C-alpha cells in the first residue's frame, strides 16, 4: 500500500497504483462508505493501454496519471498521443486524449469497467468475491446486489456499450493539437430509498473544515509544504457524526481504519491541532461524550476502545483507557486555547465521569493498571493518568466543582512513587522502565513511549504541569531520546535498537511513529533540551520530504546513513490522523504559543535555537480569532496578529 496513490474525501476514497489503471486486483477501486463501487477501470486507446509516464497526487482528494500511446501515424520514436486521467475520490474520473500529430487522427477509446461491490475489510483480508454482472443503464453501466446499485455514467455518452464485457466505447476524431475528454461518474444507489447526496466535510464540496487557512513560510520552505500537506490530509479525513452533523472528528487513517471511530487517535489529533482552533476538539469531545459508559459499575465513565498490540514485551493495551485519560486533558487545554465557557461547562460532566473512573480504577494504589486481567502498570499510562489528574483538577477548580484537591494529592503520591518504582539505575545513568507487573517485576526495555513522560499538559499562565520525573531523571531521559539507540535519524524509534526484540518494522517494537516523535519534540522543547529536540525535528522533516510531505502513521526505524531514505511500512495508514496532526504539532512547537484565554493572556516561548531559521505562521487561532506570529533566526517571537484585548505574557 505504500506505493498506492490514495485519494480521500471521506466517506469516499479511490485507491490506485502509480500506473493509473484500475485492474480489479488488490485494493484498487473507488469506494464509498466502505464499499467498493468500482474495482476495474482500464483504458485503451487505439487498441493499446497507455504506457505509464507519471502518476502523482494533486491533493488529498485527487491524483493525475499521464501515459502515451503509439499509433501508426507516429513518424518516428516520439509518441503523438498522450492520455491524461484525473481521478477524484468523490467518484469522478476525467480521461483526456491529446494529439500532437500533424494530421487528423481517428481513434477508438475503450473503457473496461467492473466491480465486486465488496466490503473494504473483506478485500483487505483477501476475501473479495467475483465480479458482479453488469447491465446497461442510461449512459453507462450498473451493477446490483441486494440493497445496493453501483452506477457509472459517462459524458459524452458512449457510442457503444457492451454489458457482458463491461465495456464502453467511443470513436473520436482529433485534429492536429486537439483533445477530447470523457468524464466518468461513479455513484451508489439504494433501491427503495430516494437518491440523496452524502454530505462531505472536506473543503471543496461540503462544509468548511473546523479551522482556518493556516500557513507557514520562512527560511526552510519544507515547513510550508509540510503544514499544507498535513492540513490537506486532515481535511480529507474529517467525518461527521450522522446523528449530529454539526460535530466533526477525524477518522484514524486510510485505508485500514476509516470505518469506525477510534477514540484515542481522534483525541490525540484534536489535541495536536488546537493551534488551528478549538472547533475540531469541541466536535470530537461531544461525539465521544455520547459514547461514554454511564451505567453503574466499575466501567462507569470509561470511553470505549479496542485492545492494541504493544509489542513482544507487553500484553495488548486498551485504547479506551488512553481515550478516557485524554478526554479531560483535551477539554482543559481547549479551554486555554479559547473554547467558550458555555461549551466547556456542557462537556464538564463527561470529563468529571472520566476523572471519577480514574479515581475508582486507581483505588488505594498510586499506580493505574491496564484493565487487561493481570495487566501491568505501563509507564505511558501513568503519564496519561498524572496529566489527566492535574489538568482535570485545574478544570474542576475553575468551575468550583469538587474533587480537585483529591486529584492533586493522588498525582503527588504518583510522582513520589514513580520516581523510585519506574526508574532503574545502570552504568549509563539510569532510565525509566517500560512497565511494572503487579508483583513488582520491572520490564526495562526503552522506547518512544517514554516520551509521554515529558508531555505534562498546559495549565494557566502559559505554564506546564509538573512532570513525573525529577530534574536529574528528566535530563537523563532527554539524553536517551537523543541517542542513536532511539533517534533513528528519521525520528524516534518505538523500541530502542539495542533492546531485545527490536524490529525496524515493528509498529511498537522499532518503527518510527510520527505522533510520538512529535510528542517527544514538544516535550523536549518544553523541558529546555532543544539540541535533542532539534535532531528529532530535522529527522522527521527530512523523512516528510521523502514521503512527499504526506507522512504515514509510521515507517521503518532503520538507522539513517549517508544516501539512505526512510523505508515505508507496508501496513501503515497514509494519510493518518495522528501523523497529519503530528506534523502540525511539530511545527506549532516552533512557534511556542502558550495561551490562557480565560485569563486574557498568551505567552510566546519558541526554541531559542530556531532550528529551522526564521519562521512565520499565519491563520492560527487563539480565542477563536486569527493569530499570527513570527520567529526570528535568534529564536525571538513576535505576535503580528491577535484577538483584541489579548495581552502578551512573558
From TrEMBL:
Stretches for region Disordered: 189-217
Any Pfam family: GDE_N_bis
Residue intervals of the Putative glycogen debranching enzyme N-terminal domain: 13-185
Protein name: Amylo-alpha-1,6-glucosidase
Position of the signal peptide: none
InterPro entries: 6-hairpin_glycosidase_sf (IPR008928), 6hp_glycosidase-like_sf (IPR012341), GDE_N_bis (IPR032856)
Source taxonomy: Bacteria, Bacillati, Actinomycetota, Actinomycetes, Kitasatosporales
One GO biological process term: carbohydrate metabolic process
